[in-house]
Design a protein that fits this description.
The structure is a single chain. The chain is mostly helical and 247 residues long. The chain folds into 2 domains: 74 residues, Orthogonal Bundle (Arc Repressor Mutant, subunit A); 142 residues, Up-down Bundle (Four Helix Bundle (Hemerythrin (Met), subunit A)), CATH 1.20.120.530. Helices cover 67% and strands 3% of the residues. It has 11 helices and 2 strands; from the N terminus they run H-H-H-E-E-H-H-H-H-H-H-H-H. A two-stranded antiparallel ribbon has the order 1-2.
Amino acid sequence: MVDSIRRSRLSQQIVTQICQMIRQQRIQTGERLPPERELAEQLQVSRASLREALRVLEISGIVESRHGGGTYVADFSESTAISPLALVMETSDDAIGDLLEMRIIIEPAVAEKASLRATPAQIDRLDDILRQQRMALQAGEADLFLSLDQAFHRTLATATGNDIALRVLDLIQQLLQDGRRHFIGDPERRMRAYTAHRQILDAVREHDPAGAREAMRRHLETVDRFVAAEHEGDERPRADGRARRGG
């Protein structure tokens, strides 16, 4: 049914194989995937690696689990625009690096638009999120801080009034969940993130598009540099000169 997978980074390779099967219509929309044990044997991978890959595919909206009924290929015609985009993202050779770079491309523009379109109620909501984030920072509640971090970025995207931008950022946040949790694990990094959020909000409140764009760019480039440094031992040149950070 599929070629055996013997390379490293097994979960990513499994994702790629399943996505290829869907693109080639070897598995049809709405069709049930083979049972976990059978699929793991076909791919010659552990069931743990297979489960990790299926979790990523489900987050991306490419497959869906039905309680007691197995895992099925999602019906893209009935879903949002996320699934085709997720299909591309999940087959990227450097998913983490590409996703972080995509944030730097997209989110400064999101902040810029939010500074022009945010309503007073949305600005108040952003301010309330940061008030709660400050309390989480003081209490050392990292998981709550991360949840509020996501809420801040999502509320900014909502303020643009662009539904597609919101859905794309939702997907990116989901795919980067583990990396974001690692980034804010250090109290000093949480303080830096909070300070950056405050600078972004100040620019949005002042309806300063250039300031909002620049504040967001600085914030995301700080995150990008940290992740690159964390994976320094695994870095290898890309064709475009940017270091790979996935894997």
